[in-house]
Design brief:
nine-stranded antiparallel β-sheet; 25% helix; twelve-stranded parallel β-sheet; alpha/beta; 21 strands
Length: 590
């Protein structure tokens, strides 16, 4: 009887193995053949907080402190379950859609997959590798920004890292608009992994948020032993869908087929090359690769990938490699080969958070991209300061982003000496520049066509440097002086700025406690095109001057008066009623 039941169970397993994984079927078969009952392994669930922050794309805080920085995500929660604006949390640099509406924002890339929503990311290392059962993110203010959670097969603490590093998506979703800013514990349902992990990546999109999202901690739950994975169901293919007819597709004009193919994403374009000679010809046409964004595929991109694309990108003009190549995925050899073959026509190159970059890489860019107009090196914080001198050879540059890099003053002055066509410059959080007054003076002399300048957290800028900048760069439309604590309103610097920069559309005076009514009234009198104004933290601005500003600036879209001592919630509510088209921000702490 036992033998008969065993044979019957064995036949059932054979049937199951047709739809299940090979490993699952073999495991169950061995259990039956050894006369044992197949049971689930008993494993204790491990709960752990992040041990270390490994990498991130941006943060609101300073490089020299802990307030509002991504490093706050390491360890146990500091704030949760409280809600509100707290300095002990992790905060990304931007929120809302208005950042993308500024003149300094880059143009979007064509062929970006609709499923790719990520704008920022953070990577966290945990003590022990586990098979994840849950990932919990403690959001303490304006939740809803998280769009993707990923896990990596690499153990960041291992002395012998594997050659093949895999990233798997645990959960992904479109951006959501959460109605309440209150704290919450976000724990989405995640997929099972076939490998243990202690490296988690959280990606966010803050475009739907009304204010900065704040994260307090991340919890990884999992088992040390591998659980039995769910059965894999083979997709069914309807034989009626298969046909050897081309539907006279080859009779269409070449240009029309090109237009149809241009709507495909890059992976679909590559797959289509394998169908027939006609479509291969169209999918490999260099005209399909005038713009190429590889950022959505950062987890799979390698030297081999670039090699396959190299022959198709001879007419390439705009290239986005942001987030790619880390942990050895791209090398100097692979990058150099691609740039030498495809960089001759480049006008835009996005390299945000590319930690594979080195001085030889920037040298190759300067040699192979003579017509480059836009270069983004945001958060490439591992580049040696000497590497930035090569940028000065790109004399046609119009947009340069150096946010959170280690550029030094000598290299910056050299760049400004030769790159006189600059329109947009981002030096936010560049802490190794010693004297921003010298940089401001050089900008005023060499870059008079400058339209936007980001000096976020540049603490050595004084009233003298700001006065020279305002006198020399009168076409400025965007100016970020957030957390520039050395500027004092009593010197008249902000009033002088308002009188000279009458084209201003965006002005950030974040956390400058000295901004007063006279400064606001001067802006109202001279800057009618103003759209975005941030005076967070000032103690000397009253509702009367704000009312004058709102009346004089009909295009105003954003006004941040968070932590302004004389502007309480009642005044904000009153102003919102009078000026409903303006998003007036007032942060709170509970």
């Amino acid at each position: 009887m036992l033998t008969f039941l065993s044979m019957f169970y064995y036949i059932c397993l054979r049937r199951r193995s047709r739809s299940g994984t090979r490993g699952e079927a073999l495991t169950s078969r061995r259990a039956v053949e050894s006369g044992q009952r197949a049971t689930l392994p008993i494993s204790v669930e491990v709960e752990q907080y992040a041990k270390e922050v490994l990498d991130f794309s941006s943060h609101y805080g300073s490089e020299n402190s802990m307030s509002y920085t991504m490093w706050n995500l390491a360890g146990m929660p500091n704030v949760y379950p409280s809600s509100g604006d707290f300095t002990q949390t992790a905060v990304f640099r931007a929120y809302g859609a208005w950042w993308e509406q500024c003149a300094s924002a880059p143009l979007p890339f064509r062929r970006t997959p609709k499923a790719f929503h990520s704008q920022d990311y953070i990577e966290l290392a945990f003590e022990e590798p586990v098979y994840p059962t849950a990932v919990e993110v403690l959001e303490t203010y304006h939740p809803g920004a998280i769009v993707q959670i990923m896990a990596c097969s690499l153990n960041p603490f291992s002395q012998n890292p594997p050659t093949d590093v895999r990233w798997e998506v645990l959960w992904a979703e479109e951006p959501t608009k959460v109605l309440t800013p209150q704290a919450r514990q976000f724990s989405p349902s995640i997929k099972q992994l076939s490998f243990p992990t202690n490296l988690i990546r959280v990606e966010v999109n803050s475009s739907l948020l009304k204010y900065y999202t704040e994260l307090d901690a991340v919890v990884l739950r999992g088992q040390k032993e591998r659980p039995i994975l769910s059965r894999y169901k083979m997709p069914r293919i309807d034989i009626c869908d298969l046909s050897d007819r081309n539907g006279y597709f080859d009779k269409l004009p070449y240009e029309l087929i090109q237009l149809i193919v241009s709507h495909l994403t890059l992976p679909d374009l590559c797959r289509l090359t394998q169908t027939c000679k006609l479509l291969r010809q169209h999918c490999c046409d260099p005209l399909q690769y005038i713009q190429l964004s590889l950022q959505p595929y950062w987890a799979r991109l390698s030297d081999t990938s670039l090699g396959h694309l190299q022959g198709r990108c001879t007419l390439l003009q705009r290239l986005n490699l942001s987030w790619t190549g880390n942990r050895g995925a791209l090398t100097l050899t692979g990058f150099s080969s691609f740039m030498k073959a495809c960089g001759g026509s480049l006008v835009c190159l996005e390299l945000s958070c590319c930690h594979f970059l080195s001085e030889p890489c920037l040298e190759v860019i300067s040699q192979t991209c003579p017509g480059l107009q836009e270069l983004n090196l945001s958060s490439c914080d591992r580049l040696h300061p000497q590497a930035f001198t090569h940028i000065s050879k790109l004399t046609r540059l119009r947009r340069l982003v150096l946010y959170r890099t280690r550029i030094e003053q000598t290299a910056m002055l050299r760049i400004l000496t030769f790159c006189i066509e600059l329109r947009h410059l981002n030096l936010g959080s560049c802490v190794m520049i010693e004297d921003y007054d010298v940089v401001a003076s050089m900008l005023a002399v060499r870059c008079r066509s400058l339209r936007s300048l980001d000096l976020w957290r540049c603490r050595s800028l004084s009233e003298r440097g700001l006065a020279e900048l305002a006198a020399g760069c009168r076409l400025l439309e965007e100016l970020d002086l957030g957390w520039c604590s050395t500027l004092q309103s009593s010197s008249g610097c902000f009033q002088h700025l308002a009188r000279n920069l009458q084209c201003l559309r965006k002005l950030f005076l974040t956390a400058n406690r000295t901004v007063c009514d006279s400064d606001i009234e001067e802006l109202a009198a001279n800057c009618p095109a103003l759209q975005h104004l941030d005076i967070l933290g000032t103690r000397m601005v009253s509702s009367s001057s704000l009312r004058k500003l709102l009346q004089a600036c009909p295009k105003l879209l954003l006004l941040d008066v968070s932590f302004c001592a004389q502007v309480d919630a009642r005044i904000v509510q009153e102003l919102c009623g009078l000026f409903p088209n303006v998003a007036i921000k007032k942060s709170f702490t509970q």
